[in-house]
């Protein structure tokens, strides 16, 4: 009997291990639709590069989007190419705005083993971030707005109701790092409005030290994944990010933050003074101001007026 149990036990262990491994990357990006190619070699958790899009070889237009706008890229580029078919090769990055700013100023970035030296034609970010680099741009225009909310796992197992609940010692938070995530400072401002400096210190110092507040490097990827993989109970994010995760069927919910404790971000598109493709940049800015582009942003939870 024992001899029969050994193979069965090993088989069950292998099955459980296989099942667990198969589930480990079930929510991993890229969440966008990849471009058509002769070979698609995307390996979840290893080779997926979710924040680099399109044609990196000799692009006719290069756009650096603040990372939280990754969800609009598919629809936006498809519609832009339809209206401006002369632009076939477009390269886009959706990294955190602070990282993109450093890339613009320094002239290059390395992701994994890939070094990128493309100069952007267009940079989109918050109004504050654009104003901080005003000397780099020849034209700017506002195109949409966004508010902060709380992303939680479906069912809200930690019973989060308000911002003050994030100060509880047993609540695990996925928090954007204010060092390079513009949303980080805005969330801190909301903490202060809700619970004063005491709540800010609790979340951003005490809980960081004990590990119950995790500071992300790229919140628009890490925060949803930490929620989806049960590594966090709550994540302050832009409203558009909850809208998108629900649109693609991921089990998350959102909790609204009252207007009195919230912050509205104003997004601005800017043309670089040294844009390599000046006409393409002008055409893209014109498109960003069109009803088509505005409706795409509205679809993903942004406010357009």
Automatic annotation (TrEMBL):
Keyword Transcription regulation: no
Entry keywords, A to Z: Signal
Pfam families with a match to the protein in the record: SBP_bac_11
Name of this chain's protein: Substrate-binding domain-containing protein
Source species, domain of life: Bacteria
InterPro entries the UniProt entry points to: ModA/WtpA
Signal peptide: 1-22
């Amino acid at each position: 009997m024992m001899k029969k149990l050994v193979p069965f036990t090993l088989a069950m262990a292998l099955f459980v291990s296989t099942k667990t491994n198969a589930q480990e990357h079930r929510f991993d990006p890229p969440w966008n639709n990849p471009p058509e190619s002769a070979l698609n070699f995307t390996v979840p958790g290893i080779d997926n590069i979710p924040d680099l899009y399109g044609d990196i070889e000799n692009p006719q237009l290069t756009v650096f989007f603040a990372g939280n706008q990754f969800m609009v890229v598919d629809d936006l580029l498809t519609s832009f190419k339809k209206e401006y078919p002369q632009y076939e090769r477009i390269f886009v990055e959706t990294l955190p705005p602070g990282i993109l700013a450093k890339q613009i100023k320094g002239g290059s970035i390395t992701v994994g083993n890939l070094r990128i030296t493309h100069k952007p034609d267009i940079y989109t970010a918050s109004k504050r971030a654009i104003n901080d680099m005003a000397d780099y741009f020849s034209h700017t225009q506002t195109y949409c707005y966004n508010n902060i909310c709380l992303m939680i796992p479906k069912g809200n197992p930690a019973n989060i109701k308000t911002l003050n609940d994030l100060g509880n010692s047993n609540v695990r938070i996925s928090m954007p790092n204010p060092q390079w995530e513009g949303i980080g400072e805005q969330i801190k401002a909301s903490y202060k409005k809700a619970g004063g400096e005491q709540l800010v210190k609790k979340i951003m110092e005490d809980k960081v030290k004990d590990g119950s507040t995790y500071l992300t490097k790229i919140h628009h990827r890490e925060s949803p994944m930490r929620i989806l993989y049960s590594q966090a109970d709550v994540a302050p994010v832009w409203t558009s990010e909850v809208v998108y995760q629900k649109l693609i069927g991921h089990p998350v919910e959102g909790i609204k933050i009252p207007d009195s404790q919230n912050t509205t971000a104003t997004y601005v598109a800017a043309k670089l003074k040294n844009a390599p493709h000046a006409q393409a940049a002008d055409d893209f800015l014109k498109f960003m101001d069109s009803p088509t582009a505005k409706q795409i942003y509205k679809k993903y939870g942004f406010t357009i007026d």
